[in-house]
Specification:
Blueprint (H helix, E strand, L loop, with lengths): L7 H14 L12 H16 L8 H18 L26 H22 L1 H5 L9 H13 L4 H21 L6 H27 L5 H16 L7 H29 L4 E6 L2 E4 L4
Antiparallel strand pairs: 1-2
Length: 286
């Protein structure tokens, strides 16, 4: 039986339409279900653009956090997993599961992750973990929530903005763990990785569309991130100060790349086929 809402075919088409509505690649196909799915696509965009600002009572958050930390300690959450015995040699037979296309796997994964993320949000666990820092028992849950957000985001522009938001979060965590041997530098490593991912997606989207609008998110990020990171520049050990300088140098490279992409779009220059960790490398204007 082909349920009108939850059939696999309709779910995959709904994912395509929502991807296109958020600025993703057009699939150049039309289905007889498009007219019925159009209101759901509109609703999905509205929900994404106007996320409810639900407040969490501070006493509830504090109590839930204490309960989760106690449970984590009791159950050994975060402890190294015991070594697993070696797997038996394969018998040579193929997998019993039928092959699944990347598109279907992505759609199914997004549905499953969406259900899990919704359960976490409703239960309040994500609210309890949002203030976690590296070393806390709930920090892994915080990072898992971020991965779920990325999996549920379809367009490159939205994903790029999310990565930059995560880079801001890593910087806030770095200020908290300042002075921790190795911890500060590890957080800055994650921050720089998120920065590169976000900038690469946003500069790529700007180049693909020949529209510099996506670079506005990069400009806003640079303004806030430079100011906050500069406040940490003179603090910590010599090694930590040097590591802070590396992240500041990355921000300068990001600013140069954003300016170059914007200039190339403005003068109508084509982008080279080469790219690096910050996205496409534009040709210089004459």
């Amino acid at each position: 039986m082909d349920n009108a809402l939850f059939s696999r075919r309709r779910a995959e088409r709904f994912a395509q339409l929502l991807d296109e509505a958020n600025g993703g690649r057009r699939h150049h196909v039309r289905s007889r279900d498009d007219d019925q799915l159009a209101p759901l696509v509109t609703l999905g965009r509205q929900l994404g653009a106007n996320a409810p600002d639900a407040g969490v009572d501070p006493e509830f958050r504090t109590g839930l956090r204490a309960m989760l930390l106690a449970t984590a300690v009791r159950e050994g959450v975060g402890a190294p997993a015991p070594a697993r015995p070696a797997e038996k040699a394969s018998s040579g037979r193929g997998s019993l599961l039928p092959p699944v296309t990347a598109r279907r796997a992505r759609a199914r994964g997004a549905i499953l992750i969406g259900i899990a993320a919704g359960a976490v949000a409703v239960s309040g666990i994500s609210a309890a973990s949002e203030d976690a820092v590296p070393g806390d028992a709930l920090y892994g849950m915080k990072r898992g929530t971020e991965r779920a957000q990325l999996a549920l985001t379809s367009s490159d522009i939205s994903r790029g903005q999310l990565f930059l938001d995560f880079a801001r979060t890593r910087l806030a965590e770095a200020a908290t763990v300042k002075g921790s041997p190795g911890g500060y530098r590890a957080v800055l490593d994650d921050m720089d990785a998120d920065t590169r991912q976000g900038v690469r997606l946003l500069t790529g989207a700007a180049a693909q569309r020949s529209d510099p609008a996506a670079l506005a998110a990069v400009d806003a990020f640079l303004t806030d991130q430079r100011r906050s990171l500069s406040a940490l520049e003179g603090r910590g050990s010599r090694i930590d100060r040097a590591r802070t300088g590396e992240s500041l140098a990355l921000l300068e490279s990001v600013a140069e790349r954003a300016d170059a992409v914007r200039a190339a779009i403005g003068c109508g220059r084509e982008f080279t086929v080469s790219s690096d960790t910050l996205g496409p490398i534009p040709a210089a204007c004459s």
